[in-house]
C-alpha cells in the first residue's frame, strides 16, 4: 500500500496510564513523558488536523510471547504482584538497581508494549502513514531477562507482530545513546529485519555491545549495522556519521516500513552518557528519518521514544520536535516554550529551570563524509562500520555515494 492509499494523518498512541511505568526513585522517570505530551499539547501539535490520539490496550501474553518466554512473563507478573515466584526475581534481571520491581509491573509494561503494537499496526494497516508512542522504546529487554531499565521489549514485540501479519522487510533505526542490543538480539539471524544503531562506543558505555563487527547471524549477514561513536561526539560528527551510513544501508535493504527508536539521551546535558548533541541536532535527525521513510517506504514510519534523563532540560523539547515532524509540520526551533508548560515543569521538578525556547541556539552544521582525508575519531568509526557491513549489502565502503 502506498502512502497515497493510506489513511491521512498521524496516530499518537497515548493516555495517562502509560505513566504507570514508574521505577520509583530512578533515572527513567515518567515525568519525561508527561512533560513531552504537555508541551506538545500547549504548542498545538496534538490538535493538528489529522492527528488522532488512540488509547492503547495492554499486550496480552500471546503478543508478549512473540519475543519473551512464558516463564519470563510469569516471573514479571509474579514479581509485580508480590506473589512468591518460582525463582528469585534476580534470575530474570529483576529486583536490581537498574530494574527494580514495582507494583503492577507486568500490567504497566504490557501497556507500553500494547501501545507500540497499536502504533505499528496503525501504519501497517494503512490507517495512518505515521504513528508514534513516545512512552515506548524499551530496547534493552531480552527474551528472558530485564535489562537497562526495560522489562518488555516493545519495539521487538511490535516488529514481530508485523512479521506475523506478513511484513517481509522492516528496517529498525535506533538513535538512542545506548546500543539497541535487545532488538538486535531478537532479530540477529532474521533476514526480514535490518537493525541499525548509532550509539556511544561500547568501550565506554552500557550495554557493552554494538561493535561494528556485529553484522548479523549466518542467515542474515549484513542485517545488523552498528556505528560506535567516541565520547564527546557533537552534532556535526553525529550527523556526519548518520548520513554516511544510515541512508545507504536502509536504501539497500528496501524496507516496507521504517521503525525508529528515538532515545533523547545523546543530548549534551544527559547525565548518563557522554555524547554532545543539542536539541537542534536531534531535531535534524528526526527530519532525516522522516525524509528517509518518505523516500524508501512510501512514508510508512513508526516512532517511539526511549532513553533520556535530562528530564526537563532536553527530553520534552526533543520529543515534541519528533511529534511535530511526525504530524506533518516541524516546529520553528526559535519558538518560545509556553509559560504554562514552564510552570508545570517547575512544579514537577523544582530547582530545574525549564528551557525558554525550543532551541539550544546551535543550528546543526555538518560536512558529508569523504574518504581519503586525515580521519578523526568519528571518521574512523564511520570507516569501521562501512568496511564491516557495506560489502554484505552490496555497497562500496569507499564510495561516498553509497
TrEMBL record:
Q: Which organism is it from?
A: Rugosimonospora acidiphila
- What's the protein here called? Acetoin utilization protein AcuC
- Where is the region Disordered? 344-376
Q: In which pathway does it act?
A: Ketone degradation; acetoin degradation
What Gene3D superfamilies would the database entry show? Histone deacetylase domain
Q: Which domain of life is it from?
A: Bacteria
Q: Check the record and name the Pfam families matching this protein.
A: Hist_deacetyl
Q: Which UniProt keywords apply?
A: Acetoin catabolism
The family assignment reads: Belongs to the histone deacetylase family.
What InterPro entries does this protein map onto? Answer: AcuC (IPR003085), HDACs (IPR000286), His_deacetylse_dom (IPR023801), His_deacetylse_dom_sf (IPR037138), Ureohydrolase_dom_sf (IPR023696)
Q: What residues does the Histone deacetylase domain cover?
A: 26-324
Asked if the record carries the keyword Phosphoprotein, the reply is: no
Amino acid at each position: 500500500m502506498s502512502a497515497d492509499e493510506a489513511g491521512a494523518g498521524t496516530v499518537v498512541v497515548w493516555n495517562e496510564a502509560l505513566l504507570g511505568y514508574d521505577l520509583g526513585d530512578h533515572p527513567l522517570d515518567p515525568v519525561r513523558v508527561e512533560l513531552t505530551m504537555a508541551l506538545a499539547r500547549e504548542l498545538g501539535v496534538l490538535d493538528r488536523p489529522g492527528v488522532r490520539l488512540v488509547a492503547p490496550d495492554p499486550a496480552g501474553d500471546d503478543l508478549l510471547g512473540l519475543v519473551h518466554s512464558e516463564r519470563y512473563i510469569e516471573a514479571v507478573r509474579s514479581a509485580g504482584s508480590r506473589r512468591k515466584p518460582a525463582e528469585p526475581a534476580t534470575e530474570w534481571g529483576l529486583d536490581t538497581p537498574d530494574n527494580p520491581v514495582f507494583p503492577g509491573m507486568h500490567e504497566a509494561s504490557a501497556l507500553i508494549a500494547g501501545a507500540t503494537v497499536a502504533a505499528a499496526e496503525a501504519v501497517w494497516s494503512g490507517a495512518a502513514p505515521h504513528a508514534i508512542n513516545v512512552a515506548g522504546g524499551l530496547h534493552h529487554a531480552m527474551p528472558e531477562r530485564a535489562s537497562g531499565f526495560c522489562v518488555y521489549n516493545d519495539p521487538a514485540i511490535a516488529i514481530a507482530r508485523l512479521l506475523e501479519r506478513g511484513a517481509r522487510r522492516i528496517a529498525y533505526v535506533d538513535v538512542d545513546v545506548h546500543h539497541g542490543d535487545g532488538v538486535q538480539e531478537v532479530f540477529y539471524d532474521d533476514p526480514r529485519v535490518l537493525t541499525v544503531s548509532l550509539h556511544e562506543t561500547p568501550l565506554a558505555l552500557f550495554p557493552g555491545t554494538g561493535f561494528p563487527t556485529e553484522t548479523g547471524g549466518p542467515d542474515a549477514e549484513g542485517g545488523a549495522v552498528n556505528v560506535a561513536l567516541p565520547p564527546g561526539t557533537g552534532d556535526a560528527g553525529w550527523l556526519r556519521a548518520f548520513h554516511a551510513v544510515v541512508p545507504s544501508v536502509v536504501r539497500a535493504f528496501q524496507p516496507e516500513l521504517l521503525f525508529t527508536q528515538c532515545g533523547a539521551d545523546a543530548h549534551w546535558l544527559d547525565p548518563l552518557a557522554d555524547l554532545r548533541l543539542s536539541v537542534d541536532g536531534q531535531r535534524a535527525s528526526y527530519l532525516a528519518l522522516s525524509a528517509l521513510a518518505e523516500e524508501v517506504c512510501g512514508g510508512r514510519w513508526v516512532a517511539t521514544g526511549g532513553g533520556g534523563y535530562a528530564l526537563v532540560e532536553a527530553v520534552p523539547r526533543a520529543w515534541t520536535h519528533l511529534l511535530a515532524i511526525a504530524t506533518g509540520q516541524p516546529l520553528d526551533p526559535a519558538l518560545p516554550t509556553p509559560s504554562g508548560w514552564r510552570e508545570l515543569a517547575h512544579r514537577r521538578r523544582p530547582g530545574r529551570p525549564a528551557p525558554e525556547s525550543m532551541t539550544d541556539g546551535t543550528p546543526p552544521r555538518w560536512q558529508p563524509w569523504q574518504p581519503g582525508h586525515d580521519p578523526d575519531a568519528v571518521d574512523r568509526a564511520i570507516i569501521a562500520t562501512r568496511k564491516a557491513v557495506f560489502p554484505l549489502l552490496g555497497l562500496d565502503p569507499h564510495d561516498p555515494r553509497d
